[in-house]
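Morning. Coffee machine broken again, so started the prediction first thing and wrote up yesterday's gels while waiting. Chain of 260 residues, entered below exactly as on the submission form.
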Amino acid sequence: MSSPALVVAGLEAALGDLRILRGVDLEVPYGEIHALMGPNGSGKSTLCHALMGKPEYRVTGSARVAGVEVLGLPTDVRAREGLFTTFQYPVEVPGVTLSDFMAEVADATGAGSGFEERAGVAAAGLGMDRFMDRPLNQGLSGGEKKRSEIYQLMALAPKVAVLDEIDSGLDIDAVRELAAAVEGMRGSGLGVLMITHYSRVLRYLVPDRIHVMIAGKVVLSGGPELAERLEQTGYESLAAEAGADLPGEEGDGDGFLAGL
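Came back before lunch.
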């Protein structure tokens, strides 16, 4: 494939008067899994929202999925172009079963041939069979909700998957299971950007590249060894090296909010 799965260039995002992303540049080739790490409030989740077109954000710059510029497109069109995201806090949808939801999404995004087979294999492998006739995410534990989202990813087979803290709030067994599922999807037709601020998920899934985001910019990129460095020194050392302020520190200017 001639174009990388995802190319983000000069991406800026603001929420009202609050400037959050300040020129994000990164590239995720097909067949690779990249981790985006950073402290709370650095803008990681905002990047996810900006890519999917959350309307509250004012976004400029460029984001290309398989060579197609998606900024400015409606969210459903971005999904049809092959962009998929999981959420840090998956929402519950009463009255809509997981089975019906998947059928609608597959039709709307043009999941194509092989969808039913992929869905069946994914449901069996992740133990989702028993949830198919239940309302989407309703009454599920945090781990079950995250498993449901990985099931959706496996069944829909997009070009780009942005995973927003799939390890958040999970016990070690659930982290290991989801990491194995993501690793199992590694292939020539998918690029994965996994957002996290803990390195524990990287014990079970070795990314091709790690990008460190501080104060709304990617300040450092490198190989898997960066995770070990972060374990030893934390973000403060990298922030000082990059000449950036950690969120909430004096000099931040815009007063970053935790969880952005």
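The chain has a mean pLDDT of 88. Going to sketch it on the whiteboard this afternoon.
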